[in-house]
Design goal:
Elements lengths: L3 E6 L2 E10 L5 E8 L7 H20 L9 H16 L2 H19 L8 H14 L11 H20 L28 H11 L4 H13 L3 H6 L5 E2 L4 E3 L3 E5 L3 E5 L9 E3 L2 H21 L22 H12 L9 H12 L4 H8 L4 H7 L1 H18 L3 H11 L1
Antiparallel strand pairs: 1-2, 2-3, 4-5, 5-8, 6-7
Helix pairs in contact: 2-3, 2-5, 3-5, 4-5, 7-9, 7-11, 12-13
Length: 402
């Protein structure tokens, strides 16, 4: 039988409900915290705490779980109740991966007993001593932030469910570790010209894939999600409407674009459109040749039987291609960086570059391509200096004229 009691603890109140005994004979106590709004009078507080206690008791009667649950158990409920419905599949998979470090550290602690100090100590240890599971190298700051975000998301859900009044992840500091920032590995214009020459001898499927990647700056998932119906042949325009992704649990699957602004349309030169036409004709021949073995999915880039291409295939093919031709290998994503850098160096404004890349905000573009933008601004500064270079006497004359 449930019965609510409460007691004052600092600036808040703890409401306790006895929910009988478990199979081992241990009493089951469920708790929640409630904090009065600043300025509330004693009578108002007393009335409200009675109300909160009654509501909490009803929740306990209906079997709703409260904050005396262990972090790991509640996090698994968060995955089931919230994450699976609201997160993209690849984000969900990444969150699951983060539990490898989070659960051993705080998974055994009760949700309502975890303090800011517990979180800060875990984050400090992660930043200073954490090692990559793949190569044993120190974790990046970004990885540490991802772990904190995951924990914070779980606590935010607990607050939303009125199990807690506060999220202990607030005001947590990420230690600054002296680490040299890795420069983006980008091909030069000369290397891209050389790459185009080498691609002339490559299979048409891969020649088309990498040519399109260079001319578009599309993400890998966006490239693999392209379908023939996304091409406006008359206007030489290709639209990004979906992505093709992969997780171990789901295999290859179709998803929405990363953000709403990632859905975009770009115009292409006739040279690229002609290559796409030739590639489509080749794919049509393969379809006829295989007959019923061909599984039509309308994708541009497919396996031998017409099913969507695996996400790792372009990387693996390109790495082998570069080794064979003694050509410097950069990640496939570097072609997106080249595209952005080429636009910036050509003087295209940052808002247009951001739109072409499908970034959600201009700030994202400015953050990623800060170095390239600074170089472009330096060129602009040098250009105006040369235009206004009247010499010392000329400048003096200008001042006197004023």
């Amino acid at each position: 039988q449930t019965m609510a009691t409460f007691r004052k603890r600092g600036n808040s109140y703890q409401i306790r409900v006895s929910c009988g005994y478990d199979t081992s004979g241990k009493q089951v106590i469920q708790t929640m915290s409630w904090k009065p709004t600043i300025g509330m009078k004693d009578k108002q507080i007393e009335k409200e705490i009675q109300k909160q206690a009654a509501l909490f008791e009803e929740k306990c009667k209906s079997g709703q779980i409260t904050s005396n649950i262990k972090f790991q158990s509640f996090a698994e409920q968060w995955f089931e109740e919230y994450a699976v419905c609201n997160l993209r599949s690849n984000t969900y998979a990444c969150m699951k991966q983060l539990t490898i470090r989070v659960y051993p550290a705080i998974g055994h602690l009760r949700l309502d007993k975890i303090t800011r100090r517990d979180i800060q100590q875990f984050i400090n240890d992660l930043a200073l001593n954490g090692k990559s599971l793949k190569d044993g190298k120190p974790l990046s700051r970004k990885t540490v932030v991802h772990h904190l975000s995951f924990i914070s998301d779980v606590f935010s859900y607990a607050v939303k469910m009125e199990m807690l009044t506060d999220n202990p992840c607030k005001n947590i500091d990420i230690p600054k570790v002296a680490k040299k920032k890795k420069e983006k590995d980008i091909y030069t214009l000369e290397e891209i010209a050389q790459l185009f020459q080498l691609l002339k001898d490559a299979p048409l499927k891969y020649r088309t894939f990498f040519t399109l990647a260079i001319y578009s700056g599309f993400r890998r998932g966006e490239m693999l999600g392209l379908e023939w119906k996304d091409i406006d042949w008359d206007n030489c325009v290709i639209s990004v409407r979906r992505t093709s992704n992969y997780t171990a649990s789901k295999g290859i699957y179709t998803d929405t674009t990363k953000t709403k602004k990632s859905q975009r349309s770009l115009k292409f030169p006739q040279y690229v459109m002609d290559m796409l036409r030739a590639y489509r004709a080749e794919q049509d021949k393969e379809r006829e040749k295989l007959g019923t073995k061909w599984q039509d999915c309308d994708r541009l880039f497919v396996k031998w039987d017409g099913t969507p291409m695996n996400n790792n295939t372009p990387y693996a093919w390109f790495r082998k291609f570069c080794k064979k031709n003694d050509f410097r290998f950069c990640d496939v994503h570097s072609l997106r960086h080249f595209y952005a850098s080429a636009l910036i160096n050509k003087g295209v404004d940052v808002a247009t570059v951001s739109g072409a890349l499908g970034h959600s905000t201009i700030t994202t573009t400015m953050s990623i391509y800060c170095h390239e933008l600074n170089q472009a601004q330096a060129k602009a500064s040098a250009a105006i200096a040369s235009v206004l270079d009247f010499g010392e006497s000329g400048q003096t004359a200008c001042i006197k004229d004023k």
